């Protein structure tokens, strides 16, 4: 399992980075992204701390730990600047919290995020065909999620991405130990979203290729 969307105590997760990554390693993960919720008020606190421990944890537990951030509930006009700041602070992985069905994310967030320097648009709700095409053009991955609530639109996101040629990844948005997802459960969730076995395997390759590119 490669999971590029998780949270630690640096935002609203329950575990410190060492325990989250250890549990992920024991669960069979090959790579994990640490992407706590951030905006311009706290990224300078979160990102350097994750960058500081990522390599040591990777070596200790035998998986790739990718330090990142999830830009969350940022006004659309400020997303591009926030993404630039995240990169300056050392974030290898920049995720943006999309227009989910289960939270009042500002309209226009999906579009603004896809025009910014991000890697993954998380749980992007009822994303439009035009936005999917933009994701495909810019090489930004769209997320299918195992998380309750956000996963309500998985089927729509999957269908739209397959038609529009955008790359899909499947992440957990883990906040607690029980959120970490075994590969077989992730496979069933992908099937529930309408993916075939071959399409699920492509999701896995997309995640693997993204990790290789980010960690270079």
How would you explain this protein's 3D organization?
The chain is α/β, with parallel strands linked by helices and 216 residues long. The chain has one domain: Alpha-Beta Barrel (TIM Barrel), CATH 3.20.20. 44% of the residues lie in helices and 17% in strands. Strands 1, 2, 3, 4, 5, 6, 7 and 8 form an eight-stranded parallel β-sheet that branches. Helix 1 packs parallel to helix 2 (43-61). The longest helix has 19 residues, at 43-61. The radius of gyration is 15 Å and the shape is globular. The model has no long low-confidence stretch (mean pLDDT 98).
How would you concisely characterize the structure shown here?
The chain has 216 residues and is an alpha/beta fold. The chain has eight helices and eight strands; from the N terminus they run βαββαβαβαβαβαβαα.
Features:
TIM Barrel; 8 strands; alpha/beta; 8 helices; 44% helix; eight-stranded parallel beta sheet
Helix-strand category: alpha/beta
Runs in which pLDDT lies below 50 for 5 or more consecutive residues are none
Mean pLDDT, rounded to whole units?
A: 98
Count of discrete alpha- or pi-helical segments spanning 4 or more residues: 8
Number of strands: 8
Number of domains: 1
Strand content: 15-25%
CATH topology, by name, is TIM Barrel
Largest sheet: 8 strands, parallel
CATH superfamily: Metal-dependent hydrolases
CA(first)-CA(last) distance: 20 Å
Percentage of residues in helical conformation:
40-55%
